[in-house]
Amino acid sequence: MGFWRVLLSIFCPPLAVIDKGCGSILIVFLLWLCGWVPGVIAALVILNNPRN
């Protein structure tokens, strides 16, 4: 996970996980609509997942 990806996940979480698949984008986008912090946390968790 690069520095720019972390910054992108802080400012616009759905764009940070755009290469992880449609399900990840949808989950992060819905959490981002519910609140900024849940969207950022979800994006960082998805980006830090070692299996992907």
TrEMBL record:
Name by which UniProt lists this protein: YqaE/Pmp3 family membrane protein
Record localization: Membrane
Residue stretches spanning the membrane: 26-47
Similarity comment: Belongs to the UPF0057 (PMP3) family.
Organism, scientific name: Xanthomarina gelatinilytica
Domain of life from the UniProt record: Bacteria
Principal place of residence: membrane
A GO CC term assigned to this protein in UniProt: membrane
Record Pfam families: Pmp3 (PF01679)
The entry's keywords: Membrane, Transmembrane, Transmembrane helix
Annotated signal sequence range: none
